Amino acid sequence: MNVTHLECGACGLRHEAQRLHNLCSQCGKPLLVRYDFERAARSLTKESLKQREPDLWRYREVLPVERDENIVSLGEGFTPLLRATRLGAQIGMNQLYIKDEGQNPTQSFKARGMTAAVSMAKELGVKKLAVPSAGNAAGALAAYAARAGMEAHIFMPKDTPRANVIECEQTGAHVTLMDGLITDCGAEVGRRKEAEGWFDVSTLKEPYRIEGKKTMGYELAEQFDWHLPDVIIYPTGGGTGLIGMWKAFDEMEQMGWIGSKRPRMVTVQASGCAPIVRAFAEGKRFADEFQNAHTTASGLRVPKAIGDFLIIDALRASGGTAIAVTDDELIAATKEIGSAEGIFCAPEGAACLPALKTMMKDGSVKSNERVVLFNTGSGVKYLESFST
Length: 388
Hints:
The protein is of the alpha/beta class and about 400 residues long. It has helices spanning about 35-45, 45-50, 85-90, 110-125, 135-150, 160-170, 180-195, 210-215, 215-225, 240-255, 275-280, 310-320, 325-340, 345-350, 350-360; strands at about 5-10, 15, 30-35, 80-85, 95-100, 130, 150-155, 175-180, 200, 230-235, 265-270, 320-325, 370-375. The chain contains 15 helices and 13 strands. It has a six-stranded mixed sheet with strand order 4-5-13-10-11-12, with helices on both faces. A four-stranded parallel sheet has the order 8-7-6-9, with helices on both faces. Strand 1 (about 5-10) and strand 2 form a beta hairpin. Helix 4 (about 110-125) runs parallel beside helix 5 (about 135-150), helix 5 runs parallel beside helix 6 and helix 9 (about 215-225) packs across helix 10. It is globular. The mean pLDDT is about 95.
């Protein structure tokens, strides 16, 4: 389509498109897809979107797959942006919204990244895919790999929610449960991938999951009639969704769809695993690994994110911040959101609410501002978190 090249997010080194890449060949940091936006904008217009299917492939001209026959889809994207009127009234917010990613295939936002990554893997001739995962990315990879007729090799910590494990097994993946954290699973993939012939689709270790995730930013703009919200509060493990939305805003400005004004981007992490929060508070651009990471919100149990600098850059450039919340707070927030709005959030998504309350209390968010909380998945997949 309109891809011109891949570019390192750190050193800027240019890499050729339509080739298999993991990280930058020079500095080992994540690669970002770049497009010819003048060409894309000839057919991708605000008006043309009115006639397109309600899925993320409606933004086809700014997604990386060249040939339509290689798109591997389960109908992902264009999730509801719900006005949280009752919850807003309870906490004193006039314009509170929830973007409910739990309504994607495989019940999480991870479907967005995997539709793009698996489609590109198919286009580039890959037969076997591997991923370390705390849960939802594994379920998404298993589903999309099955739909594409590829092998999926999945490595998850032993304490991953049972629903994720069963989901992967029932969609035909090869599942290995390991002692330790997602970083230990990632190290195992790294040790074995060459000998096994796997292509590694770890978070930000290939360039295309972020392309699927960025469509959350396009959708927000479209659903708000091309006026971005004041604040986006986003639960952050690997951070691909936040980085992707920040990229999408820049792309839309290049096509003349929006101006230069940006939402304040807010990262939310669990206090038991908060490397980005700590690095942001210390004024650093790169985050040290968080030792002894623990939280019931398994998607937030990411002690070291390879895209840490891209997350922190976006927070600082937008005037945003990074906030840690406790497990008790995020579990209580799940019921508070559910009883007010009927949305059974994943614990990660629920973490956005106590973060918002913190910001309201310190005055960094005003009651009349338009705020979007991201629920990244369905609470149904975390039943162990709610057992008494």
